[in-house]
Amino acid sequence: MIANYQSDSLLSLLALFSFSSGVLEMSLVLYRLSRWSFRRHWVVIGAWALLLIGVIASLAVSPPKLNNEVRIDGTPAQQVIDDLAEKMPASSGGQGIIAFTAPDGQRIDSEALRQHVVEAVNAVYNSSPHVIDNREIIAAEAAKGQSSALLSATGAVAQTATGAPSLPTPLVVSGAPVPGVMVSADGRVALMQFQFDQQTFELPGGTIDDTVDAAKAAVAGTGIQVLPSATMLQIPELIGIGEVIGVLIAAVVLIVTLGSVVAAGLPLVTALTGVGIGVGGALLVAHVIEIHSLAVVLALMLGLAVGIDYALFIVNKQRRLILDRGVSAEEAAGRAVGTAGSAVVFAGSTVTIALLALSVVGIRVLTTMSVVAAATVIIAVLLAITLLPALLGLIGERVCSAKARAHNTTHDAQPQHPAATRWVRMVTRYPYLTVAATVVLAALVAVPAAGMQLGLTSGSSYNPSTPQRQSYDAVAEHMGDGYNAPLVVAVTPSSGTGEVSDATLAEVAATLRSIDGVADVALQGIDDQRSTAVLSVVPTTGPTDPATSDVVKRIRDHAQTISGATIGVTGFAALGIDVSQRLADALPIYLGVVIGLSLIILILVFRSILVPVKATLGFLLSVAATFGATTAVFQWGWAQQLLGIDATAPVLSLLPIIITGVLYGLAMDYEVFLVSSMKEARTHGAQGVEAVEQGFTAASRVVVAAAIIMTAVFAGFIFNEDPMIKQASFALAFGVCFDAFVVRMTLVPAVMAAVGDKAWWLPKTISKRLPNLDIEGDHLSAALDKRDQTPVQA
Fold first, then answer.
1. Which residues contact 653 (CB under 8 A, 6 or more apart)?
2. pLDDT tens digit sequence for 284-321
3. Interatomic CA distance for residues 322 and 317, integer angstroms
4. Which of 35, 653, 677, 728 could link 580 by a cystine bridge, Cβ 3.0 to 4.6 Å?
5. Contacts of 453 (CB under 8 A, 6+ apart)
């Protein structure tokens, strides 16, 4: 015991000396932390278990509440929404849209079916106190007679109607229109539009399901289909069969890579623990702060992927130390966390910086996404350097089976990987040809990105088997694409005070109807003071069609030509335009911040100028190829059947900036693990191409396994029904795969071989001022060797 104490004290003195001499000995700190966690494994395991149980228990008491709204403050469309929420709060709740389709050969407004539709409409209004009952509103206005602003304004707007026979008409029962229900000209579809008194994500859990179920029960046995639109969603499915398969593939890769079921289980345990705490914590915070559902899914994907990968690097390092050098499990765990753990800490730092930098663009939805995802990554790093060594302490020497130890005694102390050796030698033999080939490949894959269109997801983005897509298609076919997401036009007095007269409304409606691409205009609401009126403008094209964006621009252009009124336009297409423009403006700023900060970190890690620059340029190739592939699959429809997708749509507006940040961080992960191995080989005497080949051979097997795991985890989410999750998961899976195998495993060794030892050049003036982070653990090894050679008293 005294010997151990004196040895640890010597390590502490060595660490202090290293700090004072300019070497930041994180490896020594992590070594000691790992040994402590290894010995006191029940304390560490118990602490993390209590935290996880607390999060789960809290969620059981307080179910999660997420937000599906893409809100970008400061945009014209969002400003209209905020103004309406203040002036007409009854019109600011979430929108409900349900399509009723008639059986083949029948009309939905026939004598046999229309009464059933009315019963379904009544059931919807009576299903929840959160559904605003249009019948009560109409009855109250009718009781006012000629003093009703709503009825008067409705007539003023209606008098400018063209009366085209192809337009939908109200469903009429007993000579009176049914509030909120329109019937297609061919009688095949009835469309019910209503509102909730709160935004969809604010509704109590089950409210929307109860509303749809009530409508279905009312028409049961009649052959009428009840199809809720994409607006009728609260929380997307977070875990499905695809996600489970992705984790199972990761488990298989772990077993093959580590050669042990026991060892393979450790990364899964730490990753699932991290996801439980990180994602669970985000769900709890969602009760206080609005968090988008995509933020939780992003944290879930990243938590699983990096949690498994980070633990894999450390466990693999520990097993190699045990098998190759014959050290004890405890000592190997300490050295593994001190070396591979240092790389994990800095790799996690680049991911965290890339994510948190999203907050600098000043968009709230991105800020919450970045914080939630970054917190999950930080938790994964903390688990890798504390819980993982504790679990290693729990299983002790069983981390390597007797069979593995016996097998290793017949092999060289430094196992060879023939496939990796052959690959890196081919790449380094023709470095310039390899660089040219990878650049050309990336450029070809990136070509579709030149035609990338940004927008928001709509019902057309869902697969045909979903009710959201079926509702969209039925409305588009029988009523017109524009009825799936009408534009909302707010009319206020130009002076800021006064009233919106019937004459002004009639002029506005006539102007809107004259705009090319507008199918119909109807009054949606007006307040009692006539200070604000809301019109519904139905375009002839769908919500994601570029032609609808042109309609929005024409409406905004015409807003200046109407005297006495100020016009603001919002709605799906308007939001899509404004969000895309705002994010496009923010992307260059974000890129500059994240690349600048990460270059500083990489210069500190590698003590080189060329390596960080090369890493960043390689990332730009990866992100360009990712955007190209995402555009080709989701916008052009290429290879969709292979991925279980059957829907073309614009690329999600949020996706480029999110993927840029996440992919940059993940790409730097593999850069750190691969190039640090090359640097370690050079430190141990290898020079030029030899150092590249030795470092690549030593690190490639585990990097390949980590990339396959991360790709599998991300790809599992492609089969999620939510279009946003589909696009994000595909982009991440493709980006990681391309970056790992084309850029890091091919381009990087080629460039490193081409420049040779010049890759490690750093101006002396800068070198003297920079601390040596020593993520390869050379100073740790030296300290341990000195400790072992120092006599201690028994």
1. 70, 454, 455, 456, 576, 579, 580, 583
2. 888 788 787 888 888 988 999 999 999 999 998 898 88
3. 9
4. 653
5. 546, 635, 650, 651
